[in-house]
Q: What sequence folds into this?
């Protein structure tokens, strides 16, 4: 039964990336109709990259299950190698166009958390999932980001490292270590919209929630390619969309399409916010998943 559960966990992790990719409209981001505004990567490339992570998520869920008796930081050490292999798989699948590092970190730790909770016979509530996942990441910012100041001029920094040094934005590392704060807000938004806005379908609920995420998220991709000025500008645009009603009104929908047009004209993309939405969808699927003796999940 553990093997079946781990398989289904990995399936849902990949599904969450694909579902996020399939949402339309999505300002500046990949959709089935639009390429990424930042680098021109298309929908098929993202789908191929997501599918290549299936084994990675299986390995990380297994690592969480197998290390359930270890301290979280010791368990995290075991997860480093599967994560690196997953990134290499994505690079091969995308021919170097994508790395999906944020997805690997966020969804990978949630996969490991699901495996650990299963091994401990605990219920997969959103709270339990994020507390367990963030416990694996304890000390991540201190290890990865704090030493960067001393390395100026000695190494080539990644986009995320440059953003931290310039603006103190912690990106996906901060999201996972600090308890998936934005991700849990997105979970609550999706649940609220489903309960109170019956006229919205799944795609529309996701688009509305994504705009809410963009309005608050300290998106490291936006800051890396447009500076803090662009980050604030995009946040303000998202807030204006929400004030117009978002997916709940015709004027809000028009504002979303206008925002999309504006972001594409400026060549900016809130990719970090898309990672958060994927994490929220994954948490919701895991919390609802039940196993049967046949191995199929039922809701």
A:
């Amino acid at each position: 039964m553990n093997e079946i559960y781990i398989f289904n966990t990995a399936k849902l992790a990949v599904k969450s990336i694909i579902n996020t990719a399939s949402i339309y409209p999505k300002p500046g981001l990949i959709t089935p109709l639009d390429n990424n505004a930042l680098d021109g990567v298309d929908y098929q490339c993202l789908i191929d990259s997501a599918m290549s992570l299936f084994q990675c998520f299986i390995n990380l869920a297994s690592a969480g299950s197998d290390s359930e008796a270890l301290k979280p930081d010791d368990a995290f050490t075991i997860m480093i190698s599967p994560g690196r292999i997953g990134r290499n798989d994505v690079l091969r699948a995308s021919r170097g166009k994508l790395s999906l590092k944020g997805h690997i970190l966020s969804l990978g730790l949630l996969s490991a958390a699901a495996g650990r909770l299963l091994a401990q016979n605990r219920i997969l509530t959103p709270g339990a999932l994020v507390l367990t996942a963030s416990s694996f990441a304890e000390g991540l910012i201190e290890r990865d980001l704090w030493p960067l100041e001393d390395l100026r001029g000695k190494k080539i920094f990644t986009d995320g490292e440059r953003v931290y040094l310039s603006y103190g934005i912690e990106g996906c590392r901060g999201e996972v270590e600090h308890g998936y704060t934005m991700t849990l807000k997105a979970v609550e938004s999706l649940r609220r919209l489903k309960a109170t806005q019956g006229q919205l379908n799944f795609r529309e609920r996701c688009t509305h929630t994504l705009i809410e995420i963009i309005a608050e998220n300290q998106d490291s991709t936006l800051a890396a390619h447009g500076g803090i000025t662009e980050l604030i500008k995009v946040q303000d645009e998202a807030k204006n969309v929400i004030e117009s009603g978002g997916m709940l009104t015709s004027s809000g929908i028009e504002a979303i399409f206008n925002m999309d047009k504006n972001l594409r004209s400026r060549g900016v993309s809130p990719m970090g916010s898309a990672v958060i939405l994927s994490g929220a969808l994954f948490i919701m699927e895991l919390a609802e998943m039940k196993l049967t003796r046949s191995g199929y999940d039922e809701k």
Remarks:
- The radius of gyration is 19 Å.
